[in-house]
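ESCALATION

Customer reports they have been waiting on this structure for their group meeting. Please prioritize. Original submission:
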Amino acid sequence: MEAFDYDLFVIGAGSGGVRACRVAANLGARVAVAEERYFGGTCVNVGCVPKKLFSYAAHYRDDFADGRGFGWTGPEPSFDWSVLLNNKNNEIKRLNGIYKAILDNNDVTVFSSRASLQGPHEIRVDGRTVTARYILLAVGGWPWVPQFEGNEHVITSNEAFHLQQLPEAITIVGGGYIAVEFASIFSRLGCETTLVYRRDRLLRGFDADIRQFISTEIGRHVTLKLENDVEKITKDNRMLKLQLKSGPEIECQAVLYATGRRPLTENLGLENTAVTRTETGAIVVDAQFKTDEPSIYAVGDAIDRVALTPVALSEAQIVARSLFSQEKRLMSYDNIPTTVFCHPNLGSVGLTEEQALARELSIDVYSATVRQLKHTLSDRDEMAMLKLVVDNSTDRVVGLHMVGPDAGELVQGFAVAMNCGATKADFDSTIGIHPTLAEEFVTMRTKRKDHAKQN
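Update from on-call: job pushed to the front of the queue and completed.
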């Protein structure tokens, strides 16, 4: 081990990279990390954290309006984008410092520059070559924009977090997490918002009933152009004109493309190693996150399995512990809870109805569409939906899905229960907290009339 400059060299100081550094260092390894951009990676800088802060800001619009039904009156509040932007930036700087402190406090050598591979154990960084017994690639991903006429006029989620002015009208292209979240955010902050998506329902990959329900709810506040796409974009002074493939034209001040992210694996020097990639640039790894080069590992968005920060953290910890301790375990991708911070929120854990049927499970499906007690006074026309997918051969709840306020907070707890093997009988025997939205999960007794069932 002493023949190398470091026991572990990590490229990328995002969530996964920093976790690997800390764990490995605590296990006695000599660790270094290279970060060319910002500490904390996508999540801290242009992802989860600023997005959630923007989502909080957007929710106040509804809160102020709802308050009138409960007797709260006063001057109409106004929104100042610059205050939100400045406070968000200050919080991100604070978090950047925390991530840097984690590395410093664990005696990790930090290179604030780009690194590339020179071989299975060699890294070029800061104008010199260093060696490491193991190398971990935690380089993350980057927004992807397709090629079409006028694509130079669009922004991505990266730039959306740094807009100096809030546009009066914005068009968002895409139908995944990022597109739907920003559509909700900008519409609530006062922008005239249009969402263009090439499929018939938003959020591909989620449960079909949930997709239909959230598309309807989002459509209450956002102009949806489904089963559509952009043909070209032209600029006329401050305005952008989008020609849709269906024919109509949209005018707005900004166009945000949220059409996916790709692993940030170009120009890493992979050609100097045996590391291989998929067509989309994702690094190919085995169950232990080892690449085709035995000394090189990869985790997080760079391997394009489940692009969620907590997943990258877990993957990185598994790698560090497997390399520098006796702990050997595999990553489980079952029952990973996730939330889309749109308005209302969407939370999900386990199998969709469609996935359960594809696995040829015999299932029972329970669902409820309800109006919150709160909205009997606020008079808001917002609904909530809850759904359970149950394997009727074991009675285990294998899928739980929800659209409603604070869905992520609620689904997190149910994810623990599902990992413990909770059955529908366990749900039924649990006393609900009344009156809450969450109690609907333990009071659903009637199977949906058109429930899908595989014999």
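Sent to customer with the following note: Residues 85 and 162 are 7 Å apart (CA to CA).
Escalation resolved.
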